[in-house]
C-alpha cells in the first residue's frame, strides 16, 4: 500500500505545482526512486550490488570465498550487513571488510524486507547479472566434497581432508586449519573423519 502511494506520488510529482509538492512532501516525505528495490537490498539499488548473502548464509561459521573475491573487485566500495544478524555471526565479515580496506555498515531498519543478510556494493552501478551466492554445502557437494568435511568448516582437519578441500575448491581453504602433531598429542582429532 505504501509503495503504491509512493509510486502514485512520484509519478504525478512532475505535474504538481510548487505548493502541492511542498504539501505532499510534508505529508508523505520526499518521493523515493525504486523504494521497493532499496528496502529489499538493505537500502541500496540492485544495480550497485556486486554480491549478496542471505541471513542464513551469514550466520554459518564459514566465510564465503565469493564475498572475499567480490571485496577484491575494484568496483566494491562497502559491505552492508542486516542488523537482524547477531554480532558473533557478522563479525567475520566486518573483519574481512576492514582487512580489505572497505567500509562496513550495519543497517537496523524495520522497513527492510526479505532475507538479504549481507551485500557488497559499489558507489556506482555495476550491473552484475548474478548476485546471489549459491549455498556453500550444495556447491561443495557438487564438487564431490563429503558432507562431513563441508560441516567441519572453521575447525581443524587432518592432512588428508585438508588436501581434499584444497583439490575441490582452493578458495575454500580459508575456512579450514590443519591439525598439527601437538594438536594430536593433546587429544584433538579431525572434525571431518
The chain-level mean pLDDT equals: 86
The CATH architecture category of the largest domain equals 2-Layer Sandwich
**Helix run count:** 10
| CATH superfamily annotation of the largest domain | Ribosomal protein L30/S12
Low-confidence stretches: none
**What is the fold-level CATH name, i.e. the topology of the largest domain?**
60s Ribosomal Protein L30, Chain: A
Biggest β-sheet description: 4 strands, mixed
Helix content: 40-55%
- Cα Rg: 22 Å
**Residues in β-strands, percent:** 15-25%
Strand order of the largest sheet: 1-4-2-3
User: Distance between termini?
Assistant: 54 Å
Shape category: elongated
In short:
Pfam families: DUF1694. This protein is of the alpha/beta class. 42% of the residues lie in helices and 15% in strands.
Descriptive labels:
single chain; 193 residues; alpha/beta; 60s Ribosomal Protein L30, Chain: A; 3 domains; four-stranded mixed beta sheet; two-stranded parallel sheet; 10 helices; 42% helix; elongated
